[in-house]
Specification:
mainly alpha; Receptor-associated Protein; 3 domains
Length: 401
């Protein structure tokens, strides 16, 4: 593959040229062996519409970071240099966004930055929690163990979230299909039947009148209803991005029967797991609480942790700082307090994390088991109500004849 490059030689003179190499990493190594300092390098071939990388719709997922962490840990364990590690992984990455990010990280490392500093320049890809863990690994000289620990920790969280999300895919699909079918019924079938029922001249049951009203509304004002729905969704999204909106939505999620308890346990598992991981790596309690607050993905729990961090700075213990919040179970506070007294807060948090992960798994399994009968009842009521509204007046008409 042919690459174009710009470089500076030992005398400071700028130079441009081309070099043939298997990949970009090999090209850079060859030029560095000649004493060149690379300032820019890119494939020499012209890009066309078909080979342009369209990264607008692509993003770096948690799964990508888990796999990346395992690969980094393996390469560090094999005594491969940090620069070489990130160059290799950038060349091998199938995700265009991650590939570009890793190339920039490698460039920063080549220019003298620490790995944690290079990663911190990409907060959309590497969270504050991730960067702090890497920084701790640099300070202790155990980067390969740190990346392996990160991979295992993130993988547990990824599996937990994936299981919860996958449980909602089936009911969401069924409900969407049901809504589409009902709209078609109201706009194409009911109008024809309603003409016959109205011409019969008999008084229609209340349920039938409601169905005809909804049908007329969708047929005559369907466009206005659609615009109103779109505008409503737009303002809801805009509101959900404000602080007040995030708090309202988070509190609503936590107040939903059964589902709210599932969310609560999921957040507590994440808090316990992150805190345990960071404290085990030697990060201070205040820093661990602040970092966990930034990655907990709940504005309610984020506010609680930020207030707790402020209290800890003034000399309050971690357990006392969490006391008084209904979102934090008393059993969790008491167990952390025991950990503080025995000097084993990390072990207690690990136990809590595992406990809440099991609780979430059990809750999701139970939710999956409840979804199917609940959907059957929901669909039965919807379809049965529609059929009843049509059959009742038809039966009345036939009886009158």
């Amino acid at each position: 593959m042919l690459f174009k490059y710009k470089s500076v030689d030992k005398d400071g003179a700028e130079k441009e040229g081309r070099i043939e190499a298997i990949n970009e990493g090999v090209a850079i190594s060859s030029l560095q062996d000649r004493g060149f300092i690379i300032t820019q390098i890119e494939p020499a071939g012209k890009k066309n519409l078909w080979n342009l990388e369209i990264s607008f719709f692509e993003k770096v997922s948690n799964k990508d970071i888990v796999i990346l962490s395992k690969q980094i840990s393996t390469l560090f364990g094999a005594q491969v240099s940090a620069l070489r590690v990130f160059r290799l992984l950038a060349d091998e990455s199938e995700n265009s966004v991650l590939r570009k990010t890793l190339k920039k990280v490698a460039d920063d490392i080549q220019n003298g930055s620490l790995i944690s500093e290079a990663l911190s320049r990409h907060p959309k890809t590497f969270s504050e929690f991730y960067v702090n863990m890497v920084k701790s690994g640099e300070e202790t000289g155990k980067l390969n163990e740190t990346f392996l620990y990160l991979a295992e920790h993130l993988n547990r969280g990824y599996e937990l979230m994936s299981k919860a999300k996958n449980a909602l895919i089936y009911p969401a699909f069924v409900i969407i299909v049901f809504i589409v079918v009902m709209i078609l019924m109201f706009t194409m079938v009911i109008p024809k039947i309603s003409v016959i029922l109205i011409e019969a001249g008999q008084e229609l049951p209340f349920l039938t009148r409601v169905v005809i009203f909804i049908s007329d509304l969708l047929v005559n004002y369907g466009l206005f209803v659609l615009v109103a729905v779109i505008v409503g969704i737009f303002f809801f999204i805009k509101f959900s991005r404000t602080t007040a909106g995030k708090i309202s939505i988070d509190r609503f999620k936590l107040s939903i029967p059964y589902v709210g308890n599932l969310y609560r346990k999921m957040y507590l598992a994440r808090i316990s797991g992150n805190m345990n991981t960071m404290l085990s790596s030697g990060i201070s309690v205040v820093k661990a609480v602040e970092t966990t607050a930034s990655v907990v993905d709940s504005i309610v729990y984020k506010n609680i942790l930020e207030k707790a961090a402020q209290s800890i700075r003034t000399g309050t213990s971690f357990s006392n700082a969490l006391t008084g919040y209904e979102e934090i179970p008393n059993i969790m506070v008491q167990m952390i307090k025991i950990g503080e007294e025995t000097g084993g807060v990390g072990e207690i948090l690990n136990t809590l994390s595992r406990f809440y992960e099991r609780e979430v798994n059990n809750a999701v399994d139970m939710l999956v088991g409840m979804i199917e009968p609940a959907l059957i009842v929901f669909l039965g009521i919807g379809v049965g109500g529609l059929l009843l509204s049509v059959l009742m007046p038809i039966y009345n008409i036939s009886s009158a004849i």
